[in-house]
Amino acid sequence: MVMPVPCFNCINGGVHGGNYLPFQEFFLIPIGAPNFKEAMRYGSETYHTMKGIIKEKYGLDSTAVGDEGGFAPKIESPEDALKLLVEAIDKAGYNGKIVIGSDPAASETFDKKLGKYNLDFKKPAAEQDPKNLKTGPQLVDWWVDLAKRYPVYLLEDPCDENDFDSHAALTAKLGDKVEIVGDDLYCTNPKIVQKGIDKKATNAMLLKVNQIGSISEAIAAYQLCVDNNWGVFCSHRSGETEDSFLADLTVALGTGHLKTGAPCRSERNCKYNQLLRIEEELKCAYAGKDFRKSGRFGPSGSNGSPAKKARTA
């Protein structure tokens, strides 16, 4: 078993934020921590450092938190969010130990009539910049440029949920460095995941149990990913309860990383507290920089995944 890297929600935009930021979530990912307990400390300290920076730059009202505990400062561009994250990481003293991830939820930006991505979709029409209207290939190149200039290690739903071609193009260009995760693209559905595997659309899947509807179906999707050397990124939902099962499932499957909100709000922290208890009791190693090796932490490779072991025992 292995303790997952927590991906802390820190900045919110998209449909989750009351600002003009087009993308939904930006994460702090403490891959350089020695264990899960220290990862919690790294992330929490940087999160609170971010709060101070936002308060100073944008005012006290920008430090109110959203459903998942992230901040929604008065910023408009994704690059502004990345700059804030880099500043907070550096100021907190975790340069090189914390990297960045994002869930753009790009389907929200896709204009079906135009067949383009509108990064100004939240603004009034008169205030929208034509430069922020992008085709699929243009969006892919834009992501590649950002990933060169910022420590971006994970992108979830960077393109529209029906745009398998753009996802595949991005994975071909960035997949060695960045985990490209399908959420809306797959909905934890094994049949759709197989389509993604065939098209080489991404190199990872987001696992949400109540998205597919049952534990057995979710594990089937997980095993399909592991068998094809894909990552699996366990996830909460934006509307959550204080049930902490996600923590147990993540460790049991050995997915190596999860997202369950900011280190803030009781329905988020209950999962983190359960993970702290698991680490204390089981003394599991921390995934760290190997967070993408979902189900492949044992010496037997993908055949050593917990789900397959359970079936063959």
- Strand runs, count: 14
N→C terminal distance: 17 Å
CATH class: Alpha Beta
Category by helix and strand content:
alpha/beta
Instruction: Return the average pLDDT rounded to an integer.
Output: 91
GO molecular function, one term: phosphopyruvate hydratase activity
EC number: 4.2.1.11
Family: Belongs to the enolase family.
Region (Disordered): 291-313
Write up this protein.
With 313 residues, the protein is an alpha/beta fold. It has one domain: TIM Barrel, CATH 3.20.20.120. 39% of the residues lie in helices and 16% in strands. The protein has ten helices and 14 strands. The chain has helices spanning 36-58, 78-92, 136-149, 164-174, 190-199, 209-212, 215-227, 245-253, 266-282, 306-312; strands at 2-3, 5-6, 8-12, 25-29, 99-103, 110-111, 116-118, 133-134, 152-156, 179-182, 204-207, 231-235, 257-259, 285-286. The chain has a nine-stranded mixed sheet. Helix 5 packs parallel to helix 7. The longest helix is centred in the first third of the chain and has 23 residues, at 36-58. The two termini are 17 Å apart. Residues 298-304 have low confidence and may be disordered. This is phosphopyruvate hydratase. It holds the Pfam family Enolase_C. Keywords: Glycolysis, Lyase, Magnesium. Residues 1-294 form the Enolase C-terminal TIM barrel domain.
Structural key phrases:
magnesium; 313 residues; alpha/beta; 9-stranded mixed β-sheet; phosphopyruvate hydratase activity; Enolase_C; lyase; Enolase_CS; 3-stranded antiparallel β-sheet; TIM Barrel; 10 helices
